[in-house]
Amino acid sequence: MSDADAIPASATKITYIDGRPATITLRRCKLVVAREGQVEERLFDKDVVNIGAMEDNDLVLEDETVSRNHCRIFVEGDQYLIQDLDSTNGTFVNRVRIREAWLRPDVVITLGKTEIRFQPFDERVRIVPTETDRYGEIIGRDRKMREIYAILEKIAPTDATVVIEGETGTGKDVVARTIHGASKREGGPFMVFDCGAVPENLIESELFGHEKGSFTGAHQTRQGVFEMANGGTVFLDELGELQLDLQPKLLRVLEQREVKRIGGTKPIKVDVRIVAATNRNLEEEVRAGRFREDLFYRLTVVRLVLPPLRERRDDVKLLARHFLDHGHFNKDREGHRRVTQFAPGVLDRLSQYDWPGNVRELHNVIERAVSFSESDTVELADVPEHIAWPRGVPRDNDSETDVSIPLPDFRASELEGTFKDAKERWVASFERDYIAGLLKKNNGNISHAAREAEIDRKYFRKLMKKYGITAQDDDLDVDE
Ligand SMILES: Nc1ncnc2c1ncn2[C@@H]1O[C@H](COP(=O)(O)OP(=O)(O)OP(=O)(O)O)[C@@H](O)[C@H]1O
Fold first, then answer.
1. Architecture field, domain 28-123
2. Tell me, which fold does domain 310-388 have in CATH?
3. Which residues contact 395 (CB under 8 A, 6 or more apart)?
4. Is the C-beta atom of 279 inside 6 A of ligand 1?
5. Where are the annotated coiled coils located (predicted)?
6. Contact status, residue 218 vs residue 224, Cβ threshold 8 Å
7. What's the pTM value of the predicted model, to 2 decimals?
8. Confidence band (pLDDT; 50, 70, 90) for 245?
9. Predicted local confidence at residue 458, as pLDDT
């Protein structure tokens, strides 16, 4: 095999002009399968196509002269390679027996009595921002969001690997779920794996599974996330946190669509689509030597960068209205919306704020405002001070002397001691209730609760310890 044999086939990729996505090229290949006078055409948009007689192959050949796992066609850089998998009768390309070879368009691959014509073809389309202000569960009408919808329309139905980048709370999780929901894997599992939340010593077994007895404590054979997601999508959240020594193993899954359990010897085929998210800049991580370059290129077939909310201020009003209209928190006992509108000026003040916690923070602020609201309207007073009255905005004098604000209903015990004592008691009681409440809301999941609170998981655990609060996944967090 020499480079001279290589044919450049453009990968599924997005091209940018002046920083804007301009076109998308979708890579596909057609396999025309002929055997005993019967011809069948199959279209693949996968990076790896496994071929053989066994049921779990992408192309199953009912031919007794074909091995169970006969060969594999896969994308390498910009080209397609074929690799024989130690088949009994061999793999032939244009009648020459090969172990590995680059594939040119229209070559004929022979496996036993079956002939397969290989025909790569690419579809190149312009990215035109959609006219819609939502795609699936994703809300937003900023041009950058509508460009993302246009890309999603094209790539969601394929098997292309996607990496979603964006600050915390920009909607990476929502986008990943939407991609799965719009794909042909929709009926299959959607498995989330948070690379930053699982203790380092458990990551490998969680991802790839283990055989019984492979390490102390491995009492049962266990499937990993990739096996469990077979037929569906694996969402690798916080990808930038994945340890360097595990990265080659992930690369192997991507290249060969196979996993090996810890302590296992035989590779197990997995049919999964991979979507990953990170709030780190992966290119910087590669430069800093914390992320492998080969894995980076393998993963970033399609790279989506979600803009922070402060860069799409017009979406703040749209999202705020959406949360008010559809938030589960805004329902009375009969299921009717309790709070129906924003007082004049409230939405303007919301869109002037910078939203460091992005859409998640906005969602939380609306939820809080609804719970504070005493009428059918969200008033400025229901919004946190730093948002309602940013520095430089003169306060309405009337509101400072407003005697109609009811005095807080303190119990006598709460007023005992000095101001400092009372404040400490109050803070402690708030912290305890808040941490316990948030854990309950997140079904005992510490990582999720800490993320929602936007505080470090270790600090969250420290507070749990301080107040004697336990959670169901407490014993998993052994890495501190
Ligand atoms: N564009 C959007 N439209 C509607 N809801 C959104 C959007 N973006 C985020 N949200 C909501 O904001 C919250 C946080 O979103 P999500 O968990 O997807 O963020 P994330 O980027 O994955 O955050 P993190 O990096 O912290 O994991 C969720 O409640 C989600 O439903």
1. Sandwich (2.60)
2. Helicase, Ruva Protein; domain 3 (1.10.8)
3. 389
4. yes
5. none
6. no
7. 0.74
8. confident
9. 84
